[in-house]
Design a protein that fits this description.
Number of domains of chain A: 3
Shape of chain B: flat
Radius of gyration of chain A: 18 Å
Strand content of chain A: under 5%
Largest sheet of chain A: none
Largest interface: A-B, 90 and 68 residues
Order of helices and strands of chain B: HHHH
Strand content of chain B: under 5%
Largest sheet of chain B: none
Oligomer: heterodimer
Radius of gyration of chain B: 19 Å
Structural class of chain B: mainly alpha
Distance between the termini of chain B: 45 Å
Helix content of chain B: over 70%
Helix content of chain A: over 70%
Distance between the termini of chain A: 46 Å
Number of strands of chain B: 0
Chain lengths: 180, 99
């Protein structure tokens, strides 16, 4: 599954749905909703990947994850232009993800709860850092806080499948209407 | 059939990621659209953070994650270093969860 559906959040959702023996159509629809946020990310990376031929862009798309998007965005915001950064990071992540999946299958129960060591927070801390480093105007900070609060609120309200796409799509409207 | 669901999910995932890359349009974007696209990356990454901080396990946090998040923001703003922020964040959340 990890080889074909390279998408962490939706893989966890799929495992839960499989355990409830949900129908295939429900599983596929849930995954589509969860991963719609990547369409937003792709829209935002378009201009950087514009130089690639179509085949290259379609190849890049398969490896587009939250982490690859966040790291590439950080890279481009710091003035980086090289696409190698994106490909090396995204494809390494794919390999590591699948090696770790295999390790999890083999070792599984021996590892225990990773939450005890705070490791699960490393990605969140990385994303927070990327946002902090990317803020250039006051409106950037406002947009980031609004997006985080709206997504967090939706997740608390039980709408976690659409939380990121909704908050991510709505918060930038502030930039459209705000005056700099 | 689990395999149908897996292959269907793979297709759905790939379509969401690839369609914006595959479609090309000509001409310049109006100002409002380019302001929207400029603000989009920060908004998406912040939106990924929100649920992980407020509802890390699906239910309301006990407070460890928001406190650790504040420490990460302060560390990164001060040191301008991603790595320093991650180290502080992971250590803080591990300690705060013990409380």
């Amino acid at each position: 599954m990890s080889l074909l559906v390279f998408a962490g959040a939706s893989q966890f959702a799929m495992v839960r749905l499989f355990s409830e023996s949900a129908p295939s159509a429900i599983v596929i629809a849930s995954v589509l909703f969860i991963n719609l946020r990547h369409a937003l990310m792709a829209a935002s990376l378009r201009s950087q990947l514009q130089g690639l031929p179509l085949a290259g862009r379609l190849f890049a798309a398969f490896f587009l994850t939250d982490e690859a998007f966040a790291m590439a965005t950080g890279h481009f915001r710091r003035g980086g232009r090289s696409l190698a950064y994106y490909f090396v990071f995204a494809i390494s992540l794919f390999v590591l993800w699948n090696v770790a999946t295999l390790a999890g299958i083999v070792l599984g129960d021996a590892i225990g709860d990773p939450r005890r060591y705070g490791i699960d927070f490393a990605i969140t801390a990385t994303f927070i850092g990327i946002v902090v480093l990317a803020i250039r105007h006051r409106s950037d900070a406002v947009i980031a806080i609004v997006a985080a609060l709206v997504a967090g609120g939706l997740a608390l309200a039980g709408a976690s499948t659409i939380a990121v796409i909704t908050a991510g799509a709505l918060a930038p409207l502030i930039a459209v209407f705000a005056r700099r | 059939m689990i395999w149908i669901a897996i292959v269907g999910s793979a297709v759905a995932t790939y379509l969401a990621r690839s369609l914006p890359f595959a479609i090309t349009f000509r001409g310049r974007l109006p100002g409002s659209a380019s302001r929207y696209l400029d603000a989009l990356p920060v908004a998406i990454i912040a939106a990924l953070v929100g649920p992980a901080v407020v509802a890390p396990t699906g239910a309301l946090t006990h407070g460890a994650e928001p406190l650790a998040a504040a420490l990460v923001i302060a560390t990164v703003a001060w040191r301008r270093s991603l790595l320093a922020g991650v180290i502080v964040g992971v250590a803080a959340v591990a300690l705060l969860r013990l409380v």
